Amino acid sequence: MTPIMSDVIAGRIELLDPLARGASGSLWRAIDRRYGVVCAAKVMRQRDGADVLRFVREQTVGSAQGLGRHPHLLPPYTWVAEDDTIVLVMPLVHGGTLAGAIAEHGALSPALTAQLLRQLLDALSAMHASHWVHRDVKPANLLLDSTGDGPPHLLLADFGIALHETDVRLTETGFVHGTPGFMAPELLEGAGTSFAQDVWAAGACALEALDPLPPRERPAPEELPDRASRTLAGSADPAAAGLEHLLRSLLDLDPARRPSAAGAREAIPRPEGPPAQWARTAAGTPFLVPDQVPSPDGLSEVPLEGPATLAGLAPGLHERLTALSSGGSAASPGPGTSPDPSDDATVPRSGPTEHLVAEETRRAPQEPAPTPAPTSPSQRTGRWIGMLLLVISLLSLLGAGALLWLALS
Q1: Which residues constitute the domain of residue 239?
Q2: For the chain, what is the mean pLDDT?
Q3: What pLDDT is attached to residue 353?
Q4: Which of 136, 183, 198, 221 is the most buried (most CB within 10 A)?
Q5: Catalytic machinery residues
Q6: What is the DSSP string of 157-215?
Q7: Distance (Å, rounded) from C-alpha 182 to C-alpha 203?
């Protein structure tokens, strides 16, 4: 596919083709020039400070320990900003969304639905163990890797309204957050955030896969347990009976009686036999997930677990600053400081701090001049570190001011 546009954000993320547009921004196929690989870039739609907060939350989830490497979670692995544009960067997933798959294939079999639900519960279990609540679990936020006729691979994405249990509840000021049809009944009654609301939403997603309905025809939340029983009644699928019991517990009106995500996951046995036996629609046809977003020729992609496994990975800015401040080795500067940023993908460059100081010394005037006495290498390094700390402090003050403005508004 020929790119229709090529803009480079912050000297690093080259936008190629728009893939989708949503309420909070647009999703692009892009190139991460730092590593020379294809990625997905979510470009923020400029509106107000609340959109900035959504992007900060998404990136924060991505930096949480271990979550970016979970096989069923797809948080951003970095972000860049330039002028009024903020971009979140994540691996590119090729199989579309579960919502799109349901629209194309129709209802799914109980066996297939159970395995997709197991993967979703595994993702939620990891988030909850890290004290995060997703708060917007729905089929449109469940991505599918392009596995063809192999076992389907689901990933939970879009963490724009995720909330950590230690967060200041700036987003809980009388407003209900989520998507109608996938919001736990207690939220509609004004209850606060809890892990149980994600569990309820997971059950609602599974029921939607079993019995898809137009948004306006979906029943009230209190009707979903009986809807699950009616949908699975009389099914010859071996997974139907166990799935009905599990869905009724996930969709219990009392959040205290719902199982945890980890407990519900363990109630679903792993599939037996090849995918051809269980990865099917309700009509019995094979459930295939083709590649919907081909990559440019000659370029590899960021792995689903993030860029940490790429060969020749250059350390991030934080690691470089740490190395400089400790007097150790520092890797090559970030994107935009070398003629070919893609060099970082194959040749990690590094050198001691003393070498950088020596370069500055060689550039000094050859003839004496009435200037102050030359500084020592340690003083030069200290000045650079001081300037960097000043820039970081200014950015922190700007962020704190933005959050205060949001709280007051």
Answers
A1: 98-278
A2: 79
A3: 34
A4: 198
A5: 136
A6: ---TT-EETTS--TT-SS---S-TTSS-HHHHTT----HHHHHHHHHHHHHHHHS---G
A7: 9
Name the domain count of the chain: 3
d(CA 301, CA 49): 32
What does the alpha-carbon distance between residue 117 and residue 135 come to, in Å, rounded to a whole number?
17
Paired tokens of 36: 């020379």
Do residue 61 and residue 164 come from a single domain?
no
Asked if residues 98 and 209 have their Cβ atoms less than 8 Å apart, the reply is yes
Q: Are 203 and 226 in contact (CB under 8 A)?
A: no
In the 3-class helix/strand/coil scheme, how is 41-54 assigned residue by residue?
EEEECCCCHHHHHH
Task: Look up the CATH number of the domain holding residue 29.
Answer: 3.30.200.20
Predicted pLDDT at 354: 36
Q: What is the arithmetic mean of pLDDT over 212-222?
A: 90
- DSSP labels, 328-390: SEEE---TTSSS-GGGGGT---EEEHHHHHHHHHHTS-SS--S-PPPPPHHHHHHHHHHHHHH
**Is 232 found in the same domain as 248?**
yes
Its pTM stands at 0.74
| Rounded mean pLDDT, 305-326 | 71
* Beta-sheet strand order (sheet of 13-21): 7-9, 13-21, 25-32, 37-44, 85-90, 78-82
List, as one string, the DSSP characters of 239-291: THHHHHHHHHHHT-SSGGGSPPHHHHHHTSPPP-S-HHHHSBBTTS-B--B--
- Pairwise CA distance, residues 31 & 203, whole Å: 36
Name the residue with higher pLDDT: 86 or 232: 232
In this structure, are residues 203 and 251 in contact, taking their beta carbons and an 8 Å threshold?
A: yes
pLDDT in tens, 133-148: 999 999 999 999 999 9
Contact at 8 Å (CB) between 290 and 148?
A: yes
Read off the amino acid at residue 214. P
What is the average pLDDT across 325-330?
A: 62
CA nearest 70: which of 129, 5, 14? 129
Q: Mean pLDDT throughout 359-379? A: 44
Q: What are the tens digits of pLDDT across the range 236-257?
A: 999 999 999 999 999 999 999 9
